[in-house]
Amino acid sequence: QTFTIIGHADPKTGSPSYNQSLSEKRAKAVYEYLISKGVDKSRLAWIGVGATDNIFPINGTNRVVIVK
């Protein structure tokens, strides 16, 4: 089974390009951490989606990484 690590960013701060880059950095940091703990990298994929998804609609802060 492959797990996808999805990085998100807060739509209330930063430009779209900044948020895209930040979400990618978040996802890659989790990816690298899991590999450092012994998870085979062939079981992992990562992407950043910027501030495109509203994960927490109540307060709008999407500073999160989700693993699916």
Summarize the structure.
The chain is α+β, with helices and mostly antiparallel strands. The protein contains 1 helix and 3 strands; from the N terminus they run βαββ.
Describe the protein's architecture and organization.
- The mean pLDDT is 92.
- The radius of gyration is 12 Å and the shape is elongated.
- The chain is of the alpha+beta class and 68 residues long.
- It has a 3-stranded mixed sheet.
- It has 1 helix and 3 strands; from the N terminus they run βαββ.
- Helices cover 31% and strands 19% of the residues.
Proportion of helical residues: 25-40%
* Radius of gyration, whole Å: 12 Å
- Category from helices, strands and their pairing: alpha+beta
Roughly how many Å apart are the termini? Answer: 10 Å
What share of the residues does DSSP label as strand, in percent?
15-25%
Strand order of the largest sheet: 2-1-3
Biggest beta-sheet profile: 3 strands, mixed
**Number of DSSP helical runs:** 1
Question: What is the H/E string?
Answer: EHEE
Uncertain spans, ≥5 residues at pLDDT below 50? none
Question: Could you give the count of β-strands?
Answer: 3
Quick one: overall form? elongated
Q: What is the mean pLDDT?
A: 92
Strand and helix map with partners:
Blueprint: E1 3-7, H1 16-36, E2 44-48, E3 65-67
Parallel strand pairs: 1-2
Antiparallel strand pairs: 1-3
